[in-house]
Design a protein that fits this description.
The chain has 169 residues and is an alpha+beta fold. It contains four helices and six strands; from the N terminus they run H-H-H-E-H-E-E-E-E-E. Strand 3 and strand 4 form a beta hairpin.
Length: 169
């Protein structure tokens, strides 16, 4: 009887060690997502951003739209308005960016790319100078683009645009 209690106690103790070891490894994996740089994914995002800019310069709205993963989870915030979804985003981008006659400047200043495995959060300050006929529009916003790695490459699943406070001076 004493032997059975000892074996049972050892078995329970062993299972507790295994469960706690698994939890520690799972926690370490989460920490790696926070600290790992994912340089290959960062490079892919840079290339994707360049292709987005090129589609705008080429006036290729279908290509521009192809960098989005529209669906029920797609969201966008802009101009302090209520959140909208993929349909509104696509209509806006086709209408507004489809009217660009020249891309004078398309700089993304202070870009930060934070990759978390299959998700990447890209933040930057836009310095976009876009011509609409003879009219020049300068867009200085804080922009967040949330990308998801798909079978077709990195796709935007969320956009957030806020006006960048103008520096006094």
């Amino acid at each position: 009887m004493k032997f059975k209690i000892t074996v049972t106690t050892l078995a329970i103790f062993g299972m507790l060690i295994l469960v706690n070891t698994s939890k520690v490894h799972a926690q370490e994996a989460k920490i790696d997502l926070l600290n790992e740089k994912f340089p290959e994914a960062q490079q892919e995002i840079i290339e994707t951003f360049g292709a987005i800019a090129q589609s705008l310069k080429d006036g290729d709205m279908d290509k521009l739209i192809s960098f989005h993963a529209y669906g029920p989870k797609f969201t966008e915030f802009k101009k302090g308005e209520s959140r909208n979804g993929g349909e509104a985003n696509e209509t806006f981008e086709r209408t507004v960016f489809g009217g660009v006659t020249e891309v004078v400047k398309f700089d993304a200043k202070d870009m930060q790319i934070a990759v978390y495995g299959e998700v990447a959060n890209v933040t930057f300050h836009s310095d976009f100078h876009l011509k609409f006929g003879e009219d020049l529009a300068i867009i200085n916003d804080q922009i967040t683009l949330l990308f998801l790695k798909t079978n077709d490459g990195w796709k935007i699943v969320h956009e957030h645009h806020s006006p960048l406070k103008k520096e006094e001076g």
